[in-house]
Amino acid sequence: MARECCNHCGCSWLEYVKRKISNGTYQVWIECQGCGKNARGAGILIAHDKMILEDCRTLPSDNLPRCERCDAEGSDWHHWGPRSVFSDADSWPLGRLCLRCHQLWHSKMLAYTNGRVDA
Predict the structure, then answer these.
(1) In the chain, where are the structural domains located?
(2) Through-space distance between the first and last CA atoms of the chain, rounded to whole angstroms
(3) How far apart are the C-alpha atoms of 64 and 87, rounded to whole Å?
């Protein structure tokens, strides 16, 4: 890693780390081994295409929410009433879907709205 210092404490002992977040994907940042904070500042993450995830130390992820459709670990909230269709979208129920199921739902709905009901 290039010589970089922590924005918080000035320490140069830094390490790439990753943590799986609620939707099952990873966030990657540079952690200061001196103070334990994100060396570049809170919320400053690193794009995944700039590094190999396997080279990062994995931090534990506590109790990731499961997909309500397939029970996969990691999910995001899904609006059953899309904002683009319903002006009262927030009054519609929410459900937890993993990325795969969420993408499947959107592709099926897009096919349906384009007249391909059998998609």
Answers:
(1) 14-58, 65-119
(2) 47
(3) 31
Q: What is residue 49's DSSP assignment?
A: G
pTM: 0.53
Residues 42-99: tens digit of each pLDDT: 777 777 665 667 777 887 777 778 899 999 888 888 888 878 788 998 899 989 998 8
Let me know: does 15 contact 35? Beta carbons within 8 Å. Answer: no
Give Rg (Cα) of the chain.
19
Residue 15, H or E segment: strand 14-20
80 DSSP 8-state letter: S
Task: Return d(Cα 119, Cα 112) in angstroms, integer.
Answer: 7
